[in-house]
């Protein structure tokens, strides 16, 4: 049997198992899980984590461990509130929010990856430092507003279009399509994966490794900027966070990326990202439907999911994981 046929058979088996599990969970939850209304809620809940996970995919393709995206999304979400309210009508506010937040996200990606390449500081250490810096920026802004007796910007309802149906799904689909094309069908996507896999081989191939990896960070920042707009549109406002608490934002997308890596042996990595996010969102939705309150137990479960998916993702990987 050819390897391609074996791969197709594995995909079919995985699909059948997943569908069977979903049907069982649908019955256990009193036929609520797969109801049309609940599926729409699940699709909406997976939008922001999926877009962040797409950005993470490019970071990991660069062989970089960076946990600052949560703080970047925190920063871009607040920018979305400021820009959206300053522009007034949705016709002006939506494009302005997207352009402005993408610019901020791209700038953060550029700064982060330039620091990693120039300073030679381990990215996970430098990334924690940048996380604190981005949190501090939002904290300073929040404190300045508080001194005037104000809160952080609450995005006006008429400008929250991208957080409502069907626009939130349209944004999600566009992000998946863009990332799929860049990751699989562009020279820069191929170069990013080559440089992240082996820098010495990439240099031999004539690839400018530093430039390529910085572009990878910029592409990731683009998705973090979009995630910030969608997050602000969904939640109305995004409060300041400090002491690395923004790291909690990245655990669900991180789990999705790790599961996608495990699935990528049989499914395209980018396609596997929304599938993985959906699976994770379903897990927590089932817990909620079964009456398990959000909080400590669900956070414990999320941490366990990250570890389990990491184990599956690293199967067959030799040497030290960076």
From TrEMBL:
Keyword Membrane in annotation: yes
Pfam families: BPD_transp_2 (PF02653)
Keyword set, alphabetical order: Cell membrane, Membrane, Transmembrane, Transmembrane helix
InterPro entries xref list: ABC_transp_permease
A single cellular component GO annotation: plasma membrane
GO molecular function: transmembrane transporter activity
UniProt membrane topology term: Multi-pass membrane protein
Location of the protein in the cell: Cell membrane
Chain ranges passing through the membrane: 12-33, 39-60, 67-86, 92-113, 125-144, 164-183, 212-230, 242-263, 270-290, 296-313
Record-given protein name: ABC transporter permease
High-level lineage: Bacteria, Bacillati, Bacillota, Clostridia, Eubacteriales
């Amino acid at each position: 049997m050819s390897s391609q046929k074996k791969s197709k058979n594995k995909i079919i088996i995985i699909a059948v198992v997943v569908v069977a599990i979903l049907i069982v969970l649908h019955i256990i939850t009193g036929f609520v899980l797969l109801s049309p209304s609940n599926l729409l809620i699940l699709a909406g809940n997976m939008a922001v984590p999926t877009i962040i996970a797409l950005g993470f995919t490019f970071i990991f393709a660069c062989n970089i461990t960076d946990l600052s995206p949560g703080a970047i999304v925190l920063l871009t979400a607040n920018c979305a509130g400021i820009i959206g309210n300053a522009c007034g009508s949705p016709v002006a506010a939506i494009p302005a929010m997207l352009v402005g937040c993408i610019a901020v996200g791209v700038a953060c990606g550029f700064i982060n990856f330039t620091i990693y390449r120039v300073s030679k500081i381990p990215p996970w250490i430098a990334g924690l430092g940048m996380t604190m810096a981005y949190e501090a920026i939002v904290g300073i802004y929040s404190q300045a507003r508080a001194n005037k007796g104000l809160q952080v910007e609450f995005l006006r309802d008429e400008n929250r279009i991208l957080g409502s149906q069907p626009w939130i799904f349209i944004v999600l689909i566009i992000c998946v399509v863009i990332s799929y094309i860049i990751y699989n069908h562009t020279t820069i996507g191929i170069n990013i994966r080559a440089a992240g896999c082996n820098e010495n081989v990439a240099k031999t191939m004539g690839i400018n490794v530093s430039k390529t990896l910085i572009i990878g960070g910029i592409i990731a920042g683009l998705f973090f900027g979009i995630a910030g707009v969608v997050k602000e549109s969904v939640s109305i406002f995004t409060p300041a966070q400090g002491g690395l608490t923004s790291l909690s934002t990245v655990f669900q997308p991180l789990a999705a990326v790790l599961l996608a890596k495990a699935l990528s042996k049989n499914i395209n990595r980018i396609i596997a990202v929304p599938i993985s996010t959906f699976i994770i969102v379903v897990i927590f939705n089932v817990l909620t439907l079964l009456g398990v309150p959000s909080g400590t137990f669900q956070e414990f479960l999320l941490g366990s999911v990250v570890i389990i998916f990491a184990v599956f993702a690293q199967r067959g990987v030799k040497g030290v994981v960076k």
